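User: Hi! I have a protein structure encoded as tokens and I'd like to know what sequence might fold into it. I'm fairly new to this, so please keep things simple.
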């Protein structure tokens, strides 16, 4: 399966803008999801061999919607992050969904672990003190921090492109 270079570059540019906004404002506006849906419709016309209205096209987006909703309810992931991820996968050709997901999962684990370790190291004395006095509220407050997820999607997309360069065509 090939990915048109124009689509890869467009998604890279979009992710740069979305990640910047997510870092700066801690929010992904809904219009990005609406734009992605419109672009998906356009891509089904421009590249019908890669973008189709089939059940398998919507498998990963539906799973992301369900998991994203659960993570939103648990206050782990923002609603904008979940909606954006759903529509972002509409713009990835279906045969590349699994590969893109693996890079997304690895990027999430690496960034998440890095942030967890940094948060632990930066608050180590506070954590030790809270553990000694059994102050669970303080420990929860220390680790109850959200991070901008769009940069993680951007990292995974760059990594995906680097590893799958032979699947991107002019």
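Assistant: Happy to help. Inverse folding works backwards from shape to sequence: for each of the 170 positions I chose a residue that suits the local structure. Here it is:
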């Amino acid at each position: 399966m090939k990915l048109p270079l124009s689509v890869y570059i467009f998604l890279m540019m979009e992710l740069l803008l979305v990640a910047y906004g997510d870092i700066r404002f801690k929010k992904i506006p809904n219009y990005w999801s609406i734009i992605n849906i419109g672009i998906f419709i356009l891509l089904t016309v421009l590249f019908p061999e890669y973008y189709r209205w089939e059940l398998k096209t919507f498998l990963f987006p539906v799973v992301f919607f369900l998991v994203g909703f659960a993570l939103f309810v648990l206050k782990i992931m923002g609603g904008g992050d979940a909606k954006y991820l759903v529509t972002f996968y509409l713009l990835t050709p279906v045969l590349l969904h699994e590969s893109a997901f693996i890079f997304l999962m690895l990027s999430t684990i690496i960034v998440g672990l890095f942030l967890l370790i940094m948060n632990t190291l930066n608050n180590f004395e506070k954590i030790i003190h809270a553990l000694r006095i059994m102050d669970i509220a303080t420990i929860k407050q220390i680790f109850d921090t959200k991070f901008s997820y769009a940069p993680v999607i951007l990292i995974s997309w760059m990594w995906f492109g680097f590893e799958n360069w032979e699947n991107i065509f002019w």
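A useful reference point when you look it over: Residues 97-122 form the longest helix (26 residues). Feel free to ask if any position seems puzzling.
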